[in-house]
Amino acid sequence: MITKNSLALFSLFVFLAGCTSLLSGGDVQSGRQALLAGNNEAALGYFSSAANRDPNYIYATGSSPKQSVWSYVGRSEYLTGRFPQARQTLERALASRNTDEDIARLYLGLTLAREGDRQRGLKEIESGMRGINGFLDYINQAQRFSIGQFWDPDMDIRRAIRSDLAMISGKDLDWQRLTADTEWLGIRMEQESDLARRQEAFENNRDSAGTPSR
Length: 214
What we know:
Elements (H helix, E strand, L loop, with lengths): L3 H33 L3 H14 L4 E2 L7 E2 H11 L3 H12 L7 H13 L3 H25 L13 H14 L5 H35 L5
Antiparallel strand pairs: 1-2
Helix pairs in contact: 1-2, 2-3, 3-4, 3-5, 4-5, 5-6, 5-8, 6-7, 7-8
């Protein structure tokens, strides 16, 4: 039989868990803003705070791929030159049950290459690119009349990925170009997530107001 004290303790636990998740979510959002602004040290601080508070936190909004807080920590460690720490953190992110960590896989590949293991790094980068390309193709097909139409509408991301995949499979691999393209892709996917949500909200508001489409 559940006593009043037990019920009160359970309610308190649920409340505290909700507060923890809310605070972690705020840190992750602040970290993402810093990351997109190029303030990588600040981003690392926010993401580390979120991870320490809730190591199981998953960032998920709408149709965006789910990303663990450790993925964000690892990416920020890479971008601030902390390569040994980044490798361990990104491997932790990829060891989780979340299967949508293609961006973490990109950064793990970059980190491994920076540490001298280009063979394994190339495999991780290629796998991450293929995963992101597949996600973009799927969401455009499966949600043609929803937010999917706002993800990479001009196919800029997918064209860049396919160009790099062709280079990877060819004989002339330009590591400098591949590194720059992969770093661009990681940030661009974060930007695209926000752009798609804003465009969907704009279209929904316009439809609600009865504004005719062009």
